Amino acid sequence: MLNVNEYIAQAAKDVEMAMDKLVPMRQTSPEAALYYAMRYSLFAGGKRLRPALFFATLELFGMKREAGLPFAAALEMIHTYSLIHDDLPAMDDDDLRRGQPTCHKVYGEGMAVLAGDALLTHAFALMTMPLEGIPAERQMAATHEVALQAGLSGMVAGQAAEMEAQGKEKDRALLDYINEGKTSALFAAAILSAAHLAGATEEEKEALRLYAYRLGLCFQIADDILDVEGDAAVLGKPVGSDEKNDKATYASLFPLAEAKQYALDYAAAAQEALAVFDERADLLRALPTLFVERSK
Ligand code: IPE
Ligand code: IPE
Ligand code: MG
Ligand code: MG
Ligand code: MG
Fold this sequence. Notes:
Layout: H1 4-22, H2 32-42, H3 49-60, H4 69-86, E1 96-97, E2 100-101, H5 103-107, H6 109-127, H7 136-150, H8 155-165, H9 172-198, H10 202-229, H11 232-235, H12 241-244, H13 250-253, H14 256-272, H15 282-293
Antiparallel strand pairs: 1-2
């Protein structure tokens, strides 16, 4: 029997071991504080869902996860950088992340900016190291995909669109645009980079792209609902952050029950996108509902 929670827990262990090797401590360097700040946020916990999505996609195509460990580490580093910057006073101004004081609370705002910068750039150093047994063109396509999804065609764009929309009238279409950028795009980076490395067909990549985008939408709606009715001790981050910042979310635009129904609709749509795959995609099929029903 496939146990999805065990799969995610094992993915977390594997990526944490890889990150420990790939981002080693430099205690005696003049920039030691940078390493402390990066590793503080990297190893604070976190569900490690993007590495899990990456491994699940590699394995869907019969590849071993060991082949892609630097990519899994890089994806989690990019995600962690996005959280460090997202928590800064200039953005969401939050004090708690992954159950600990946020990076800027411990290391100061300047070092938190730099820790994020370093995680982002080092991620690209890792993704461009030669990978054994994988053709360079595939690795190039995978890295290019991550760059687009993490930046101007994805996460950074979504964060900027959200910032621009603050305090203005918003409709569901704009919310989805923002959520696809800030959240779906890094899911797509994880899933599609694995698909590129594995040499997936165009049809398979298109199905996975749709899946990733819908998965991100249902995940972010659940995040917004948890920001209203979740438990900060379980979540490891504050509740009420969105209301404090006057963010329009599914949870503020709709009654919670309706918002949850939208999340379930996107979860079902995500599963539908996997129709082209056989039972090897069952792990991916199980994730959308899990993402909506989660408590952290
Ligand atoms: C939080 O992501 C940011 C969002 C996109 C909502 P996660 O909920 O995956 O955060 P961690 O990695 O488990 O801390
Ligand atoms: C942020 O969304 C997503 C990114 C960091 C790109 P949120 O601001 O809702 O994430 P949380 O709730 O702080 O984790
Ligand atoms: Mg935010
Ligand atoms: Mg936030
Ligand atoms: Mg949130």
